[in-house]
């Protein structure tokens, strides 16, 4: 993996107990970044932190609770001295399409969109005090294309892309860059569950939707996140980086 200049800094990764989230955390650690892995899934989150080692710490965090967000940010600053990067990856796939109830809508948006927005808002206060930072929000191809059976997830991901643009404009005066990444079909928890862990099946079904003829690896998302956090992306803000194998170009 390319080595970006993110060493001796600190990051919070939400949704870090997932396959993609854990790979993002591992990539940060390999580059010398100290990480708080934030998730509601204690078992998988702790296991991921244990695999990574001394540069990683798991903290149970519910992104729908302001108190949990405050505690996570405070713990990052207390443990590592600063909050340089925030990666908003936590999400839910709760979705009944057009038949979704009001309760479903509020739950989905609270986790997928509002939780991300409030975490970003609160993190920016920490970053401002130290002279800057970077935020990467995980959006999706679902926020750009209509997909069968989806509504709540797609609307939330579209909202993340627009939030990123607006937030970037408001935060740049404090030297905080805010970008998003829109993955295509990625080998992730939902893919593992849907295929029973059969990667070949996932590529056979999902590959034709992508120019590259396969689905993506979680490590490929992690590389994009590290790039956008690093100073190598110093002139990039308010952007959405497609990591989708050409899905949205077709």
Number of domains: 1
Shape: globular
How many E-type strands? 7
Straight-line N-to-C gap: 28 Å
Largest sheet: 7 strands, parallel
Roughly what fraction of the amino acids lie in strands?
Answer: 15-25%
Helix-strand topology string: EHEHEHEHEHEHHHE
CATH class: Alpha Beta
Structural class, please?
alpha/beta
Poorly predicted regions: none
Number of helices: 8
In the CATH hierarchy, the architecture is 3-Layer(aba) Sandwich
The CATH fourth-level homologous superfamily: NAD(P)-binding Rossmann-like Domain
| CATH fold node name | Rossmann fold
Helix content: 40-55%
Query: Biggest sheet: strands side by side, in what order?
Result: 3-2-1-4-5-6-7
Radius of gyration: 17 Å
Mean pLDDT: 97
How would you characterize this protein structure?
This protein is α/β, with parallel strands linked by helices and 250 residues long. It has one domain (10-184, 221-244): NAD(P)-binding Rossmann-like Domain (Rossmann fold), CATH 3.40.50.720. Helix content is 46%, strand content 15%. The chain contains 8 helices and 7 strands. The protein has a 7-stranded parallel β-sheet with strand order 3-2-1-4-5-6-7, sandwiched between helices. Strand 4, helix 4 (102-130) and strand 5 form a beta-alpha-beta unit. Helix 1 (19-30) packs parallel to helix 2. The radius of gyration is 17 Å and the shape is globular. The two termini are 28 Å apart. The model has no long low-confidence stretch (mean pLDDT 97).
